[in-house]
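Researcher: Please predict.
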Amino acid sequence: MKNYGLTIRKIRLDKGYSQKEIYTEIITKSYAIEFEQGKHDISLFLFTQILDRLRIDIDEFFYIHNDYHLEEENDYINNFSHAANRHDIKSLEKMYQLLLHHVPPTTLTLVHQAELRLRIQSLTYFETYKNFEHWQGNPEDIQIIGHYLMNVQSWTLQEILLFSNNADMFNQEQQIFFFKQLLKSLPNYRAYDRAIPVYASLLTNILPTLFRMQEWAEISQGLDWLKQLSSEYTNSFFRIVFIYYSGLFAICQEDSIAGERKVLWALNTLKIIDQADIAVEFEAFFQTINDRANE
């Protein structure tokens, strides 16, 4: 953890803590001085104790250490999600061009390249046809992402988010298989704040497939979880999504009046909060569900 001590020192001084307040019973005074000068590494166990004394979590520490920038992987995830949700094809193409110059290309770089190609293709299709119903991604790109996920024995949030962002690229049987496996881990993460939007996004992206497959029990279970995950005001966006999908569910259960009321409220609210691109996508799927319900 060389050079992290320099950042620790800056945070300590900015907060007005003395070395004694931070390092007593963790490391010696002489070691603390040299650690803050960047001369020593330190174990993760001791490092987390120091962060606790400073009242800062490890994610924020690395954000500050990187001069208030996200680390490369988190920066990619943030930029990808923002551009994809906004249907911002130009930004996705720019990200893709930057990754093409990543030398040497890592396994994750190749996965991100495949992810970007698929998203650019799918959004371009949507711009033309106004729905995703018959779009099919490049099998080679889907295989790259699927191979990566299958070779990770135990998924953490990064893999869950990767699958969530690309769930619609897999065939419906694969989506439901992965979804059922991941749902088992959700109770373990429900108290971890960073996991809530990841799992809520997963549910948001997998529900259309469950509707297409008429997996009513899984839809009901997914909606129950989405309702729980969106109970706090900080996750209000996902509460709007929950209301939208619960409206679709009501329509499929032959309660069209109440269902349409919920769906139209959700679509209008998405437009009001400047999420028009998502509203257009949701509106297209609503039309598909409505047409099938009236057949």
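Model: The mean pLDDT is 91.
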